[in-house]
Design brief:
heterodimer; A: about 55 residues; mainly alpha; B: about 475 residues; alpha/beta; Amidase signature (AS) enzymes; 2 domains; two-stranded antiparallel ribbon; 16 helices
Chain lengths: ~55, ~475
Amino acid sequence: MAEMTPETLKRIIKEVYGSEIPDERLRVISRTVTKTLEALDKATEVDLEGLEPSSTR
Amino acid sequence: MDPREVRQGSIKEVSAWIRNGEVSSTEIVKDLIERTRGVNKKINAYISVLEEDAVTTARRADEEIRSGKSRGPLHGIPVSVKDILAVRGSITSAASKLLAENLTDYDATSVEHLRQAGAIIIGKNNCHEFAYGPTAEDSYYGPCRNPWNPELVTGGSSGGSASAVAACLCYGSLGTDTGGSSRIPSSYCGTVGFKPTYGRVSRFGVIPLSWNLDHVSPIARTVEDAAILLEAIAGMDPRDSTSSERPVPRYQSALSNDFKRMKVGVLGKYLEECLDQEVRRRVETAVEVISGLGVSVSEISIPKIEHSAPVANMLIACEATSIHEKWLKERREDYQPSVRTRLEVGYFYSANHYVKALRLREWFRREFDRVFKSVDVLLSPTCPILPFKIGQETIDVGGRKTDPRPFIANFVRIYNLLGLPALSVPCGFSSSGLPIGLQIAGRPFDEETVLKLAYAYEQAQPWKDRLPNI
């Protein structure tokens, strides 16, 4: 699930941020988040089985 | 000596001139302060110039050197520091209204090390607010301007550091690099930016952006100068929990011609994804030059590498939002609008996304470990596009108008994600006279091999002698 709609964003922002974000900025955020999540989805097509979160080396 | 010749000298050259009494550190500092008064109006590289402190320290350096107490090549040499590193007695603003009155009473560890090596801290550099942006356009103090053409971006976030070095307002600078922030402006301003291995240089005293990806990075006009700066600031620091205990090599000694058996990999995917064909051609030519040095060169493919930048972006976003959470609630209007938007993005990733990104980091780490069994260094362009106009909304890519900003850091972020050493060295100029950077990356804690190849390439080319006419 890589989609982050403006409606979802609005709900989250009110809950965690305590304020509304104007629609124009929400659209920018929505685009950024959606694109990043799509890339994350594509990247995780690789086999992550057995891989723990990496710590700093 | 001719002040222009002194300004344009390398750290090693100027150090020798000071030791031989041909010029004094005090004369140099006064000349650079005077020059900065004029040039800074054009390029906005400095937020503050530490005039009084710099002159006092330079006088002390001259006395020490005259009495035979030389501390090495940085003794009496003026350098600058990005305004997100603490410098005792200065405002450390992070180019933000939020910290415009943040007077700091201590030195970052890297600054402390520079002072111990005898360097003179001449000023604090402008940058992208809180180091959170790849252009250095969005600063409370106005945009950083490129010394090759002040209408263009410097690249960021350490834009003021790279432009001050390129414009000969100092001999080197400390920048930081969380997602390319020393290498991007070095590519755009024609300097050398060197992000060392994570843990090699202490982060203590740096206003954080992302604990996992922040690095302190020297910026200089030559590879040798970058090696001198790195050698001074590297080392274990108990005040940084991620600091490495590995001994610091003599980086200057690495700059030999002993590289003939080196195996060099070229990241073909990054060449393919170059949006500007002039950049691609220049980097391909650089690869040919490097091949001509006698090393073996092969093309390397790493699966999914095109998705590494978004993975890094997500980690940065989550950590930056956490760091800024209090201010986002209480003083959100004081941020630059674009930086505020970037920070707000971090609210919309889940814990699952964050952990997935960390697991992907481990996956990429294993892939790079595999690749580094067959090659010693990896080459790519530093940036896929040339510097563009400050505020420019779109560039033309294959007939399609698109915002250039999301592309700038595509080739550099993987090395923040993995904490690997990576350096940008000038590899030529566009037909419009703008510098282009070649990125050289290496194995963890193998800064020496990266420096060795960068130095050999630099010596084989004329680019380090070309300076902006400003």
